[in-house]
Amino acid sequence: MRYLVANWKMKLTIAESMALARAVREFVERHDTPDLHIALCPSHAALSEVGKILATSGIALGAQDAAHVDRASLTGATSPLHLAELGVKEVIIGHSERRAIFGETDELVHHKAKAVLAHGLTAIICVGERKEERDRGEAETVVRRQARAAVDAGTPWEKLCIAYEPVWAIGTGTPVRREDAVAQADAIRDELGKALGNKDAGARIPVLYGGSVDGDNVRLFTQAPLNGTLVGTASQSKEGMYALLLALRTLPQE
Ligand code: PGA
After folding, report:
1. 72: Cβ contacts below 8 Å, ≥ 6 apart
2. How close is the Cα of 232 to the center of ligand 1, in Å?
3. Residue closest by Cα to atom 2 of ligand 1
4. Which of 127, 231, 236 should be mutated for ligand 1, with most atoms under 8 A from CB?
5. Which residues line ligand 1 (CB under 6 A)?
């Protein structure tokens, strides 16, 4: 299974999100997209309307964040329980923007992932080093730390997915080299295997790549051992989304 996860961030209005969801649905109804799992992650405010458009389409509804508990005095937060009620199937957790701007720690990411997985939703946990960490030769140490902290021996890993997103590659037009993404995916899987106490599980967890992916380079990151991509900018327009889907349609089956 290959993944294409669209992260619309806070870039589209509700009406724009609905129009783009309709366009993606139309594409998928007109063209075969073999072995491709597509998820659209609009803002929380747009989830309900986008969910109605995607119903029965085979395209999954995703969210960009969730609270770490179901019910609490947490003003402004969104419960994983509510996301499940809305028909959300996967949730991005620990995106670097949430870590950097909202101060989310490895520990909070761990609890958020657990809360999401407890509802049978897929948790797409983001990890990735910053530019200065890569320059200091610490890129692998950082993703190992983040991957290890995200899970423990009791984590139900069947619905776990990791997105390797180097912070310096996000929104910059400069993706990582494929060989570097592959090396980081190996380190992430190794570390997950240890933290879960299950080497085989670690090896089977899908690892996506995210950071300046577009229609021109998406195929590079959608071939084993990488399992697909988490896309921001290029997924936020019909042209960008169609370019991604067209590139993936012709990718040979593995
Ligand atoms: P980008 O964003 O595709 O615009 O680099 C990716 C992300 O932040 O998930």
Report:
1. none
2. 4
3. 232
4. 231
5. 7, 165, 170-171, 210-213, 230-234
Cβ–Cβ < 8 Å for 248, 231: no
The domain spans of the chain are: 2-249
Confidence bin at 32 (pLDDT 50/70/90):
confident
Q: Under DSSP, is residue 79 helix (H, G, I), strand (E, B) or coil?
A: coil
SS3 121: coil
* HSE, side-chain direction, 13 A CA sphere, residue 214: 16
Burial environment of residue 34 by CB neighbours within 10 A (0 to 12, 13 to 18, 19 or more)? exposed
The architecture (CATH level 2) of 2-249 comes to Alpha-Beta Barrel (3.20)
What is the mean predicted confidence (pLDDT) over 160-182?
97
- By CB neighbour count within 10 A (0-12 exposed, 13-18 middle, 19+ buried), where does 77 fall? middle
Q: What tokens appear for 182 in the block?
A: 């592959």
Q: Is the pLDDT of residue 248 over 90?
A: yes
**Cα–Cα dist 42/50, whole Å:** 8
Predicted confidence (pLDDT) per residue in 45-76, tens digit? 999 999 999 999 999 999 999 999 999 999 99
Single-letter residue type at 72 = A
Residue tagged active-site, from 68, 95, 110, 119? 95
User: 99-149 pLDDT, tens per residue?
Assistant: 999 999 999 999 999 999 999 999 999 999 999 999 999 999 999 999 999
The pTM of the full predicted model, rounded to 2 decimals, is 0.97
